[in-house]
Amino acid sequence: MALGIQAQADGLYDITFTDGGADVGSGQINVAGGFATSGYFDITIGPASGNWTLAGGTTAYPNLLTSPSGTLYYDNAVYLTSNPQFPVTDTYLDNGGLLFTDDNNNANEFNLFANANGSFSLYATINNVERNPAVVGQSTITPAPEPSSLTAIALLLVPAGAFIRRKIKWS
Questions:
Q1: What is the dihedral of CA 141, 147, 45, 74, to 10 degrees?
Q2: Interval 120-135: pLDDT, tens
Q3: Is residue 162 part of a domain?
């Protein structure tokens, strides 16, 4: 692929963001071909609190898309193996990052993106007011457990639970 985007492991990924407690959120994205194609992010603490949906559109670094409000730039690129913009810190996002919009009002949006030093920023526009400066913190991405794996784990726990119950009953 062009401009350093390498083959990625497609699937669901859990993502988180925290700046130490004043702004906290987590969500899940579906990655296909090196891009987040759908997903959500719930901010539970901070001025941008609420439920957010991944905005559509993808492009490759260094190109950027403009958000619906015209105030933010993004690319929805996800680098699970190597980041062409930040190869030293090798973050899973570049400076374009992921764009999320409010389910009720597309004028409300936030961008989660990486910085050169390995930190992440969350920059929001709420009710047409830009939250400047961006909140800087840490973010993680991990593969989401597959439903079949969760079912297998649950089925393995049933016999263990029955054994423990039987042992307690006989005591």
A1: 50
A2: 999 999 888 888 778 9
A3: no
Structural domains in the chain (count): 1
Residue with tokens 């190869």: 87
The residue range of the domain holding 71 is: 2-145
Of 102, 101, 97, 109, residue with least CA distance to 139: 97
pTM of the model: 0.81
Per residue in 30-78, pLDDT (tens digit) is 999 999 999 999 999 998 899 999 999 999 999 999 998 888 999 999 9
Question: Could you tell me if residue 124 is inside a domain?
Answer: yes
Q: Is residue 163 part of a domain?
A: no
